[in-house]
Design a protein that fits this description.
With about 200 residues, the chain is an alpha+beta fold. It has a domain of about 140 residues: Pnp Oxidase, Chain A. The protein is built from 6 helices and 9 strands, in the order αββββαββααααβββ. A hairpin with an 8-residue loop joins β8 and β9. The protein is elongated.
């Protein structure tokens, strides 16, 4: 991150006296789970070829266990996390960044159902139609099929391919820039969910 990034020094986002555990900062930085506007985050995985891969997903919700995202069970990201559950998440705001290292575990069926229910109508329908065959269709046919499906299904339930994951963090890194001094990262680490967090300040 550089000084060209607009800094956000809001006290609620990065108080001067930081807590020993990161929950207070997470509550200040992340929206409530019932907020319909969900943050985008970059999910980074390790592929079978050894090259990393990255894509943008929605943060469905967050709780004391970690960060949840949802996707199609046939996707490459699911193949990646099934093969190697070690992942990274990156969330960015003007002048702020949160990075997460952790392990991805499948979430419960109840949690997946809750997340689907709280998706927008568009994203609920996308979970049904976002297939390789649909992607191959010309635009006119995609538009027609989308409209037809919408008209024929006034209420939607999750498809069998709806999948969800919980990322349990082992490292959280909060970065914030300031226009009046050097930026700084604050890093929290814990090797297992049952151990306490340790906190370190790092150069920005």
């Amino acid at each position: 991150m550089t000084s060209e990034v607009q800094a956000d020094a809001s006290p609620e986002h990065f108080p001067e006296h930081l807590p020993e555990a990161p929950e207070t900062l997470l509550a200040a930085w992340l929206p409530a789970n019932d907020d319909p506007v969900r943050p985008l985050m970059t999910l980074s995985t390790l592929t079978a070829s050894g090259y990393p891969d990255a894509r943008t997903v929605l943060l469905s919700e967050y709780d004391d266990s970690g960060f949840y995202f949802h996707t199609d069970s046939r996707s490459r990201k699911v193949a990646d996390v099934t093969r190697d559950p070690r992942v990274a998440l990156t969330l960015v705001w003007p002048g702020r960044q949160l990075t997460v290292q952790g392990e991805a575990h499948r979430s419960s069926m109840d949690e997946r159902g809750w997340a689907y229910e709280h998706r927008s109508r568009y994203l609920q329908q996308l979970a049904w139609l976002n297939t390789p065959d649909f992607a191959e269709l010309p635009l006119a046919e995609r538009l027609t099929r989308w409209a037809d499906f919408d008209a024929e299904h006034p209420a939607l339930t999750p498809p069998d391919t709806w999948d969800g994951f919980l990322v349990r963090p082992v490292r959280l890194t909060f970065w914030q820039g300031r226009p009046d001094t050097a930026s700084r990262r604050t890093e929290y680490r814990r090797p297992t969910p049952s151990t306490p967090w340790t906190r370190h300040h790092l150069p920005g």
